[in-house]
Design a protein that fits this description.
heterodimer, A: 542 residues, mainly alpha, B: 429 residues, alpha/beta, Spore Coat Polysaccharide Biosynthesis Protein SpsA, Chain A, 7-stranded mixed sheet, two-stranded parallel sheet, 58% helix, transmembrane (chain A), membrane (chain A)
Chain lengths: 542, 429
């Protein structure tokens, strides 16, 4: 039997030097060392998780409307599964491929059991796994950042049940996967054991998040802040350098991949990482977010349409925590999420930047934690610090809680009811059914569609790539345009979904196809209708 | 088969080699960073503060050979120790009158110093210490080298460590300190830092430990029971540790930067190579003696096997990693395979970064100023040091094969020799 000198906790060696507690961490209630063995935490977390899964999962295929992006990621995942490369068309370094490689992995077993289920609507189910893990991580992170149990639970509820979250987390977006990895990085960075390899793992998880969706780069400083606060003076330099090294090395695997394929730098006849990055950096800006009429303002309004509580309340929570930095222990404990919210808010305010609708996904967990932390701070101030009589304090707290509930619950109830009952995708399903049954020889037919339907048509027997054509590619991918020497005349149908109608203006071939076609079937009404348009060549249909 | 078969075979071969190297490098890194895993682990690697009670008596062995220049100073410093009950036994050779004279003078001045003369025809350190073992009167035998700078409070701490942990063996820290002397001394110092500061504690915890050559303390009865040191082993200190831990003796390691025994690196590249050859050969001998096979668990035996063969694996790794990367870049293997070939290089890079941080910590711990140029030397010197280690490993295998297991240093020891060459070859790492 041999061993090192007993650790500090062993009573045999009372004179052993105690590791000094970190400055600034005094006065915090220590979170339990192992959440796994804490029954109240487990019960609360499981109950909330069930509620979140029910609300997010019920009716997931029918609401919200299928988006072209979801279809693209899933089609790329399908290409990975089928061994067709990294995308259903030429992969051009638009995003790192790791995101849909994970989707490919998640959908692999379901697609083995039922190949036809590899469509956007049915495969949204795998996002429940991602959303569920993220929600649990929000709870764990909240606890590790010293939030009381109820506040960590509140954070989890805000993150999982806000109507905005429900809509966005149901969709097959890379951002949702990236959020999961980022939360894992935060949770590891705040590891109560302050283990070197947990911090190293945080670096790996952070790099994975960035490789899943590159916009997660913005959040990296916030992870570093969390790690700095949670590491110990004596081991910090090893932990932090280790994490940064891990993050950089894993991150470098993407350029290394491009290098190994000979596609790092631009050259004739091949795509390159350089061009991909250049494209993303020079995307036309969508204007200042507060400037009415700008694209960014529209995006902001679309978020606020679903929920005001989480985005605006979260921002207010962040401001409150920043303002009370000097006095509030909670504010300092939540430095990481606060920094994440601050950075993401500032980035969204760039007047020249491009603000995609999914942008807010990466902010959701931090908005939720910061709002929960702000609430905990207010609760603490009301219950513990005020000069009021105890009965008065509790009355005040109850009034505040009831007021907040009265504002939030009806709105969220409406949001949740829409999410579990609305059917936004009937037109898509009908269009898919029509093209599967009404077209006689799908293998000989060429259709322009948006990606939300692409896999449906592949399963219906259309040739992937040049038979069923993702409409952008009819103008932008030389490999596809080469097969259309006569332009729109080489196409048989256009499925004019809202996305196709919106973007056709900038795509000559698609625009011409729209102009030289007539609807043969229309599903839905108004803006959201889907038309199946047959091309009219001069000598009649081919 | 054809070209595809060849490519497949190459790919599989490269992948297997890369993964093996990766796991080896990853485990080594994992162990090297043991002490910094958590703040609690780091705190537990230190000596606990003595309680003031001193109940053990010490016999401190001080083998000295042609070391008349430094011996007296070392004895004086040992005598300044705050501990109440110890004796110093200086072991000198019968053919070394200069050192004997210094030792006799010290003995005349202070009754706590005694001199034992080693009359073996062929001399080495284990023989010298075995000669002195019957003369030891203390409860605990401690070993120092003639040029060691020993901290006056060390004995009190060791005394406390024995009593508070019930240990049979206490290994204190040894640290090379002259990192600024040359590019290789920089790396040599850092090797000691990672070994005594971190890795050795893991070995103690796992129950398999190759001991160091000095600042090591063993209960006298345990040492006698084990028949002292193996006079035919080139790494007698490592061997003792392996034998004691294999029969379940409790070993405790403690490292305190104020309390370490400070030493200097070998004076020349050649003497470093010779020293390293001897250790490697010694490790090989210990491996072949198979005492470690008595270890009770499979994991311990695996650790023993791995640790004792590390010098050779290390040599192999150092040569294979660059080759592997070259294959990935220039041979037309699939991208996934190419990725796997980078894994060992990635681990090596992480190790590199931790070494840089280790150098910073080393400077902080010892209040030494580490300049930018030292970090540069550390990085640039890395590959060359690998070559040196590989050379020593190959040399060790070659010498062992040819049955040359004499102590290389005894063959060239002479009065003319710079003593730095003599004294610094006795510390295993």
């Amino acid at each position: 039997m041999t061993s090192t000198l007993p650790a500090v906790t062993t009573p045999q060696v009372p004179a052993q030097r105690q590791p000094a507690p970190e400055a600034g961490s005094t006065g915090r209630t220590a979170p339990p060392k192992r959440l796994r063995t804490s029954r109240p935490d487990l019960v609360l977390c499981v109950v909330l998780l069930m509620a979140i899964l029910v609300v997010q999962g019920w009716n997931i295929a029918a609401y919200p409307t299928l988006s072209d992006d979801e279809g693209t990621y899933l089609a790329q995942a399908w290409a990975v599964q089928e061994g067709r490369g990294l995308a259903h068309y030429t992969y051009w370094y638009d995003h790192p491929p790791f995101g849909w490689m994970q989707i490919a992995l998640l959908t692999w077993i379901p697609s083995l059991i039922s190949p036809d289920s590899m469509t956007v609507g049915s495969m949204r189910a795998v996002m429940l796994v991602v959303g569920g893990i993220s929600a649990v991580l929000v709870y764990m992170l909240g606890r590790r950042l010293s939030l009381p149990r109820w506040a960590a639970g509140l954070g989890m509820v805000l993150f999982g049940l806000s109507p905005l979250s429900v809509v966005l987390q149901r969709e097959i977006f890379l951002d949702n996967l990236a959020v999961m990895w980022t939360l894992l990085a935060f949770t590891l960075a705040a590891s109560p054991s302050r283990h070197l390899w947990h911090h190293f793992g945080a670096g790996i998880a952070a790099a994975t998040a960035v490789l899943t969706k590159e916009t997660m780069l913005f959040v990296l400083p916030a992870i570093l802040v969390t790690m700095w606060r949670h590491s110990h003076r004596d081991t910090r330099k090893f932990a932090v350098t280790g994490a940064i090294t891990a993050c950089v090395l894993i991150g470098l695997s993407y350029p290394l991949f491009a290098l190994l394929k000979g596609e790092l730098f631009p050259g004739s006849g091949h795509v390159s990482l350089w061009d991909g990055i250049k494209y993303q950096m020079t995307r036309p800006g969508s204007g200042f977010i507060l400037d009415q009429g700008s694209g960014s303002y529209g995006v902001l309004q679309s978020w606020l349409y679903y929920d005001r509580v989480l985005p605006l309340g979260g921002l207010a929570g962040a401001l409150l925590l920043l303002a009370t930095w000097r006095w509030s222990v909670t504010a300092r404990a939540l430095a990481g999420p606060c920094a994440a919210v601050a950075i993401l808010a500032l980035v969204a305010m760039r007047p020249s930047g491009y603000l995609p609708a999914m942008y807010i996904i990466q902010a959701l967990p931090f908005l939720a934690l910061v709002l929960a932390g702000g609430t905990a701070s207010v609760a603490h101030a009301v219950l513990r610090k005020g000069r009021l009589h105890p009965a008065g304090r509790y009355t005040l707290a109850a009034v505040l809680a009831l007021g907040a509930g009265a504002y939030v619950v009806p709105r969220w109830y409406d949001g949740a009811r829409t999410a579990v009952t609305a059917d936004a995708n009937a037109p898509y399903r009908a269009a898919s059914k029509w093209l599967s049954t009404e077209v006689e020889r799908p293998e000989k037919t060429r259709v322009l569609v948006d990606d939300a339907l692409w896999l449906d048509l592949v399963h219906a027997g259309y040739r992937p790539g040049n038979g069923v054509i993702w409409f952008y590619k009819a103008d932008l991918d030389p490999a596809v345009t080469k097969t259309m020497p006569r332009g729109w005349r080489d196409i048989d149908y256009v499925v004019a979904s809202p996305t196709v109608r919106r973007d056709a203006a900038d795509l000559p071939n698609v625009k011409a196809a729209m102009e030289h076609s007539t609807p043969v079937a229309v599903f839905g009404k108004g803006e959201d209708r889907i038309e199946i348009r047959q091309i009219q060549t001069a000598g009649g249909t081919r | 088969m054809g070209i595809w078969g060849d490519l497949l075979l190459t790919s599989v071969f490269i992948a297997v080699v890369s993964l093996a190297l990766f796991w080896m490098a990853a485990f080594t890194l994992w162990w090297q960073m043991h002490a910094w895993r958590t703040p609690e682990v780091l705190a537990s690697t230190r000596f606990s503060r003595p309680d003031g009670g001193e109940h053990l008596s010490f016999s401190l062995l001080l083998p000295a050979r042609h070391e008349q220049a430094v011996l007296d100073h070392t004895i004086q410093r040992l005598l300044e120790s705050g501990h109440a009950d110890f004796e110093i036994i200086v072991i000198v050779g019968h053919d070394d009158p200069e050192t004997t004279e210094v030792a006799e003078r010290a003995a005349a001045r202070d009754p706590r110093v005694r001199v034992v003369v080693d009359t073996h025809e062929k001399k080495n350190k284990p023989k010298a210490m075995n000669t002195a073992l019957p003369h030891c009167r203390g409860d605990v035998v401690g070993v120092f080298d003639a040029e060691d700078q020993v901290h006056p409070e060390l004995l009190a701490h060791v005394d406390h460590a024995f009593r508070s942990t019930g240990a049979d063996v206490v290994q204190g820290g040894v640290q090379l300190i002259n990192f600024h002397s040359s590019w290789y001394s920089l790396r040599n110092c850092l090797e000691y830092f990672f070994w005594f500061r971190s890795r050795l504690h893991l070995h103690a915890q796992k129950g398999f430990i190759p001991l160091g050559g000095n600042t090591v303390f063993v209960r006298t009865d345990v040492l006698r029971e084990a028949d002292g040191w193996d006079p035919n082993c080139l790494a007698e200190d490592c061997d003792l540790g392996v034998r004691l831990s294999s029969v379940g003796k409790k070993v405790v390691v403690a490292y305190d930067s104020d309390m370490v025994t400070k030493e200097e690196t070998p004076g020349s590249l050649m003497s470093l190579l010779k020293q390293r050859t001897r250790w490697n050969q010694g490790f090989l001998q210990v491996y072949r003696k198979k005492d470690w096979k008595q270890l009770p668990t499979f994991g311990q035996r695996l650790l023993a096997r791995y640790t004792l063969t590390t010098p050779f694996l290390q040599a192999f790794t150092g040569l294979i990693i660059p080759l592997n990367v070259a294959i990935a870049l220039f041979l037309d293997v699939p991208v996934s395979i190419a990725f796997i070939t980078f894994l060992p290089a990635v681990t090596a890079l992480v190790t590199f970064v931790f070494e840089v941080v280790g150098l910073h910590d080393f400077g902080k711990q010892y209040g030494l100023r580490v300049r930018f140029v030292h970090y540069l030397k550390l990085i640039v010197g890395g590959p060359f040091y690998q070559v040196l280690l590989a050379g020593a490993a190959i040399r060790a295998v070659w010498r062992e094969q040819r049955g040359r297991n004499d102590w290389e240093l005894t063959s060239h020891v002479g009065a003319h020799l710079n003593q730095a060459d003599v004294i610094r070859e006795d510390v295993p790492a």
